[in-house]
Amino acid sequence: MADAGEVLVLGECLEGQLMPTTGEIIAAGRQLADDLDTTLGCGLLGHGLEHAAEAALRHGADRSYVVDQALLARFQTELYLEALTRLCRAVSPGVLLMARTQSGRDLAPRLAARLGVSLAQDCLEVKIDPSTKHLLATRPVYGGNAMATLLCLQTPQFATVRPKVYSPLSTQDARQGEVVPVPVELDPAMARTKVVSVAKEEIEGVKLEDARIVVSGGRGLGGPEGFRPLQELANALGAGIGASRAAVDSGWVPYSWQIGLTGKTITPDVYITVGISGASQHIAGCSGAKCIVAINKDREANIFRYARYGIVGDWQKLIGAIIEAAEAWDKPVDPPQIPTP
Amino acid sequence: MSLHIVVTAKQVIDPEIPKSAFKIDPTSKRVVVPSSFPPVVNGFDEHAVEAALRIKDTQEAKVTVLGVGKTFSIDVMRKLLAMGADELVLVQDAAIDESIDSRVTAQLLSAAIKKIGGFDLILCGRQASDWDNAQVPLILTEALALPCITLAKKIEVGNGTVTIERVVPEGLEVVETPLPALVTVSNELGLPRYPTMRAIMAANRKRPSIWKLSDLSVDPATLQPSLRLVDLFVPVQDHACEFIDGGDEREIAHKLFQKLRETRLI
After folding, report:
1. How far is A226 from chain B (nearest CA, A)?
2. What would the pLDDT profile of A1-10 be if each residue is shown by its tens digit?
């Protein structure tokens, strides 16, 4: 192992399978390990992780460190935190990466505190500073109005990476690596917080995070009834439907619809916004869209800085024509028709 | 028995400041704010104060608001007293570098909370609107060895237990933990109350407790950040929006779908 210490990424599994974000941070960590001329480890917690441990190797890790225990079958903050702390102490990495997911957001700052280091949170880019060989992490600040680049000075140099920023490497079945079980003693009494119940919300239509097209509305819709024509447009396009924080805070639509820094992060091919001004808080959740179409009455609205196509006008007058055009649009036939010889 | 709730609060640059007024001094690597935009209380911290007051609406409770920073506008922070908090404690010291390092902030809050003492519940905003780090509450929970529940939509306290409703990707989760505990509050809680005129007048007569680092027996030498800010810059937007015009709405809509088809994305 090189002097710098190994690069360790802490992955996530669900029911024994790698989460997509794990592939993303393996890709980010692979580059760092190569630049430092060291190895890449992937830490995994859960129960029944044989497949996940092998999958992490195929995705680009040199080693999978596995804490496989029945107590870790379901996520519980304190047990996961304890297992991660023990794992990090055992591996003693030079650089540590996690994905800023729902659970990563809760775990990473606490793990950093337990390891006695500071954390660069929610980064869009992580790289090795060529002169100091330390981790350089770039993250949005002031609601996306500015970017900050931080140099991590302590070991392990620790950053979380925003999901969907890095793309997983293509998996290679022939890739060899080592699976290292890490023994950790856990006591169920460590779990002080207890989930009493989960009320699942039925999602109608297309799931926002997976949608290729998303239609979304904001304060400019003026009220909950504005989302009705938007739903028609979404149906015509087979699109998911979302909203800005202003619309959910006003109680017009449920919180599960919120796209933005404190809501969902989406990466559709086409994102159509109606009556959304484009506050930085919102842009943080949709900047990964390939093409943003903005409809807003104010030509100076911030959303037009990010949009590829803009329409300035009254949405109430426009929406009918847009739904009509969407319904008339002949969707590509799937799968593509192969001409018979 | 009366419940003692400590709420942490930060003073931040107004997040609604227009992009055109947002400037960075490249030498000091700090944001320069025109004086026409006074600082505000971090929005999520107002939600945390609101959460504390809703508990106080239903049972006997004392709410202490705590902030740490280099300088405060007392009038800005007084808003939290006007909302209904009982006490305001500000750790204000020139030696505090309003730093990029959440660990330093959490260390100061932890020392101040130990000095305040006798708390049952600590409430924090889920994150601050300036650096959006969402770290301080979680480091603080470690420093105080407390259980922690994040992103509360609703908080209930009873029989030495706090029960939280929180929004998760799957729906709504209910989590409980014994007191004392730390809870972070999200905007799903609903809008914070507006102070009444009478409450504003009363708050103006209250004197916040102002503490220095020396009051906390914190050695300034231990407050060195371990993240170094090497650059702070405004990202460049390098593409222009193509505006679609037309004689009527149908023409505009038609042109839009034509354009989208050309991109091969739809």
Report:
1. 18
2. 445 699 999 9
